[in-house]
Design goal:
disordered C terminus, globular, 10 helices, binds zinc ion, 8 strands, alpha/beta, single chain
Length: about 240
């Protein structure tokens, strides 16, 4: 089959999602765009993946503290082109973007040698779900689960409280907003399991912390957090 025909038949697969150029790789992103993406590289906090400027293994936020999630990882920094792609997935109704993003997440998960029995997408509050029509974290979780052949469950863990926008809030303020926002509906499913929580962006870690707290209380043995991107400034707003 000629490349032109492939592009015509499967435009989303054979067209670069960033520049519309022709593309023939698993990411649906052309070579030159792949080079220009904002990968999370260099030394990062071994717990939350915050880029580290100073010596040591932990960032300021994690040093000496106990968090409920065991590790948070992401293939990208929330910046530039990646920011645009995530916005497209989240606000632009471009659901097909979940697939290429999940491939990068799968690569990262494999490289970090994590092991999860069950994937749980971070639930969206119903007001936002109604506005948007879909939960981008569930799209990412389904695409990722398909690649890594891990079960996804979007019903065992739900959001029971509407939370005000997290705009311009710091970790503590976000955390207090999220108290009692989530509930484990199926404790049997979670008990003794290594859970992989999937979300689009890791900002302050408040959501990851609150979700992991509930899952651990329900008996999860381990909670990992995998997002597409990690903000490079923990105060940056993205809700
Ligand atoms: Zn491109
Ligand atoms: Zn950290």
């Amino acid at each position: 089959m000629t490349s032109k025909l492939l592009k015509m038949l499967f435009p989303e697969k054979y067209t670069c999602v960033i520049c519309d150029d022709e593309v023939f790789n698993k990411y649906s992103i052309c070579k030159s765009c792949l080079k220009s993406l904002e990968y999370l590289t260099g030394k990062t906090c071994i717990h939350c993946s915050d880029p580290l400027i100073s010596m040591g293994d932990y960032c300021k936020r994690c040093k000496g503290k106990v968090f409920y999630y065991d590790r948070a990882i992401a293939p990208f920094v929330f910046d530039g082109k990646i920011k645009g792609i995530i916005h497209g997935l989240k606000y632009g109704n471009k659901k097909y973007l979940a697939e290429p993003l999940a491939i990068f997440m799968a690569d990262k998960y494999t490289n970090e040698k994590l092991f999860a029995d069950l994937i749980i997408p971070v639930p969206l509050c119903s007001r936002r779900l109604n506005e948007r029509g879909y939960n981008q974290s569930l799209l990412l979780a389904n695409a990722f689960g398909k690649i890594k052949k891990i079960k996804v469950d979007a019903d065992a863990f739900i959001r029971i409280k509407e939370t005000p926008p997290q705009t311009n809030l710091d970790f503590m303020e976000r955390q207090s907003n999220l108290v009692n926002a989530f509930k484990v509906l199926n404790k049997k499913l979670v008990k003794g399991k290594s859970i992989l929580l999937i979300d689009d962006v890791f900002t302050t870690g408040a959501t990851a912390t609150e979700c992991a707290k509930m899952l651990k209380k329900a008996g999860a043995s381990c909670v990992y957090v995998l997002t597409v991107a990690h903000t490079n400034k923990s105060q940056e707003n993205f809700d």
